[in-house]
């Protein structure tokens, strides 16, 4: 008498979409909300020219600028890091390379999401600079120069957005933990380092840098949460799936 074969467990489809759903969006939502609230508070204080913040900015920026003037060797190294290694265009080039790799893998939705997040970050940052119109520090003995308005720092925002997006992509694609930790260390050094260089070179107030970090964090965390929610919604029973847009 023929026997009924035992049931075989169906293995989940392992692709970008399933990986994305496996990452819970709640931490990203919480981070986005926290960064948004803190950025809104800082923006208000900057617009109102709140005295204690102005004093703190002036004291910190002045102390670092005096160090930069007295140590031209360190100033040159900081300029190389700020203008080349951690420049916003370098960050955009990193994300452009990531987008190209995603496209080669057929993950067009994720590639589009990363590109859109970068573009939105740049656009929002430039719009806020124009609206706030904060003046950059002016020194009698400048060691560097920068144009346009000060708040928020585009260098700080770009490093935050690019760094967190790269870490997110590495996690989605199952990068071994030891490499993820190495990448986190590189991103942390880059985000903190670029903020330091902008104040050290006298082209930003400290609160400009903090504003860039907070706005970048809010944008990228919100984008990640929205992506996970969108992909999870597409996976619900009864939802029509579009064709040709693997995530």
How would the blueprint of this fold be written?
Elements: H1 16-22, H2 26-47, H3 51-70, H4 72-85, H5 88-104, H6 108-132, H7 154-172, H8 177-200, H9 206-235
Helix pairs in contact: 1-9, 2-9, 4-8, 5-6, 5-7, 6-7, 6-9, 7-8, 7-9, 8-9
How would you briefly describe this protein structure?
It is built from 9 helices and no strands. It is an all-alpha fold.
Descriptive account of the structure:
By secondary structure, the chain is mainly alpha-helical. It has 9 helices and no strands. α1 packs across α9, α4 crosses α8 and α6 packs antiparallel against α9. The C terminus is likely disordered.
Elements, N to C (H/E): HHHHHHHHH
Low-pLDDT stretches are: 7-22, 241-245
Report the sheet with the most strands, covering strand number, pairing sense and barrel closure: none
| Distinct helical segment count | 9
**Secondary-structure-derived class:** mainly alpha
- Quote the beta fraction: under 5%
Radius of gyration: 22 Å
- The pLDDT mean sits at 89
Shape: globular
Distance linking N and C termini? 47 Å
Q: What fraction, in percent, of the residue positions are helical?
A: over 70%
Question: What's the number of extended β-strand segments?
Answer: 0
Which descriptors would you attach to this protein?
mainly alpha
